[in-house]
Design brief:
Layout (H helix, E strand, L loop, with lengths): L2 E3 L4 E3 L7 E7 L10 E6 L5 E2 L4 E3 L4 E3 L6 E2 L3 E6 L15 E2 L11 E7 L5 E8 L9 E4 L12 E4 L15 E11 L2 E10 L10 E6 L5 E7 L10 E9 L4 E8 L3 E3 L2 E5 L6 E7 L10 E6 L4 E2 L4 E4 L2 E4 L3 E2 L3 E5 L9 E3 L12 E5 L5 E6 L12 E2 L14 E2 L25 E4 L2 E3 L6 E6 L4 E10 L4 E8 L5 E6 L12 E11 L4 E11 L2
Parallel strand pairs: 9-10, 15-21, 29-30, 36-42
Antiparallel strand pairs: 1-2, 3-4, 3-13, 4-9, 5-8, 6-7, 6-11, 11-12, 13-14, 15-16, 16-19, 17-18, 17-20, 20-22, 23-24, 23-33, 24-29, 25-28, 26-27, 26-31, 31-32, 33-34, 35-37, 37-40, 38-39, 38-41, 41-42
Length: about 525
């Protein structure tokens, strides 16, 4: 250290051991570009004389003996094997000097140990061939207060004599969350928390949060990692939580001085939240886009990694349904209606096709067979008359009755019809050919949204044949298919049968009606 003259002897001044650092070194110089060097930094606010300090590697030690080895306050010096390390170097504020008995640094790995005149270690590191060394470049220290022994604290660079450190806050933590597995209603997460600050310590309490598409948050667990760690160290943990909410939720970590990314996790539905509601496969020249419309009561709904399959062609969805009716198309919808452009949107054949909807786990959530549908017309869409109910027979889909030929992005046109024109209960066909394999479609329509529907089939003598109960979820109609069999699967005798319907509307009012049908020979 700096020696003070007392008149009789020189008393060494102790070095500030917590303020002296190795900040750059080069073991792999390139011919004509650089030479081997080590850069030292004094982070204290007083000059420090380095006379008597030593630099060691795995093969020996070089001692600094001259009295002019001074590190200025908040300054640098570079120990090099040659005086012309950089032509652009100026002095002050930094100097280049060649220590006696210079020890060469091995290319494949070596140690650098800097000690004071009492043999105490000021700073040290041991690098290996796995470190990111590049010919002609040194390794620059990233963070001053993070250990020099860490490989991730060094990056390739060449700036001897120029401080190139990143600053660190006193306290900062970085969280990493990842899903390990999902079994039934149990999710298992792995958690890593890294000390990104300069101070030694333990992480704060950390909450595991689940966030739904509406922004609502649920705290599922609180981590208390009590172990202390230095800057750059990482702590890990595992946690399993029970989670009963379906759909895609965003999971993250939350805590004081903590930053963390989010992880999207999908939990399967027991009943599809989204159904096909309308398709346009024969667009008019005025509206040249083909499209598929989806309906959902669960808004907003994240559609990332859902898939629509048209026959054997698949397109993956990405985005959020923000309204109940959303158009999926191969280009931006130009009718000021909500839409999700999809890459590789499949061609919808004019002759018909089969639509299938899969969730992110490849579960089939809805399908409809529209092959050879009789209502395909140029400029007119096909509508699902019972949105919200998956797997409706494609024969129940009908031509749009909207004035412009479709009702994309809005409630289907059957709900827009004058209610006095709607038949309460109907059967198609009214004569069922037993054994022909063509079921009878029984439809109940309401003057307003239906809440609950009961459909019963009786013989003329009043004996029950089959019964159905439907939760209509505000739909304007309810439909079932009867195959001409009893509930036990045996065929009914030929003859006349009575269909009765009892409905309860969303406003609580009720209505009843009946229709007669015939079961005949094929």
């Amino acid at each position: 250290g700096i020696a003070e003259n007392t008149g009789s002897e020189k008393i060494p001044v102790p070095l500030p051991t917590d303020s002296l650092y190795i900040t750059e070194f080069c073991p792999l110089p390139a011919d004509g570009i650089s030479c081997e060097y080590i850069e030292f930094y004094n982070a204290s606010r007083r000059p420090v004389n380095l006379a008597g300090t030593t630099i060691s590697d795995l093969t020996g030690t070089a001692r600094l003996t001259d009295t002019d080895y001074v590190l200025p306050k908040l300054g640098l010096r570079v120990a090099a094997e040659c005086p012309d390390l950089r032509q652009d170097m100026q002095s002050p504020p930094f100097f280049v000097w060649i220590p006696p008995q210079w020890r060469s640094l091995n290319n494949g790995g070596d140690a650098i140990v800097w000690r004071d005149f009492k043999g105490r270690v000021l700073d040290s590191l041991r690098y290996t061939s796995s470190w990111d060394m590049q010919s002609g470049f040194g390794l620059e220290r990233r963070f001053l207060f993070r250990s020099a022994a860490r490989a991730d604290n060094w990056v390739p660079g060449f700036s001897p004599g120029v401080i190139a450190l990143d600053s660190l806050p006193d306290r900062a933590w970085e969280g990493e969350l990842y899903l390990i597995n999902r079994r039934a209603e149990t999710l298992t997460f792995g958690v890593k928390v890294t000390n990104q600050g300069r101070l030694f310590g333990s992480p704060p309490p950390i909450d595991l949060l689940a966030i739904n598409p509406s922004g609502d948050k649920i705290v599922l667990h609180t981590f208390k990692l009590m172990a202390d760690c230095e800057s750059g160290d990482t702590l890990g943990n595992l946690v399993s939580v029970r989670f009963e909410y379906p759909g895609t939720w965003l999971w993250t970590l939350n805590g004081e001085d903590l930053s963390s990314d989010t992880v999207a996790v999908y939990t399967p539905y027991t009943r599809s939240p989204v159904t096909f509601s309308e398709v346009m496969n024969c667009p008019s020249p005025q509206e040249p886009a083909e499209w598929i419309e989806l309906y959902s009561k669960e808004i907003p709904l994240i559609l990332d990694h859902w898939q629509i399959q048209v026959d054997q062609r698949v397109t993956e969805l990405k985005g959020v349904m923000t309204v109940p009716y959303m158009v999926i198309t191969h280009e931006k919808w130009d009718q000021y209606l909500p839409s999700l452009p999809a890459e590789r949107f499949p061609v919808l054949p004019n002759s018909g096709f089969v639509l299938r909807l899969f969730d992110p786990d490849s579960n089939l959530m809805d399908s409809v067979n529209l092959e050879n549908h009789p209502d395909f017309t140029t400029g007119v869409s096909l509508e699902n008359p019972q949105t919200g109910h998956p797997f409706l027979n494609g024969k129940a889909w009908h031509r749009s009755r909207a004035l412009r030929g479709h009702s994309a992005g809005m409630e289907n046109s059957i709900a827009l019809l004058p209610q006095e024109n709607i038949t309460f209960i109907s059967a198609d066909p009214r004569v069922l050919k037993q054994g022909a394999g063509e079921p009878m479609m029984i439809t109940v329509r309401g003057e307003k949204g239906l809440s609950y529907v009961e459909i019963h089939i009786f013989s003329l003598t009043g004996n029950p044949v089959s019964s159905y109960e439907i939760n209509a979820f505000s739909s304007p109609l309810a439909q079932i298919f009867w195959d001409g069999n009893f509930e036990n699967g045996s065929p009914v005798p030929l003859g006349l049968y009575i269909i009765t319907a009892k409905v309860r509307y969303v406003d609580g009012t009720k209505k009843e009606g009946f229709e007669s049908v015939l079961v005949n020979c094929p």
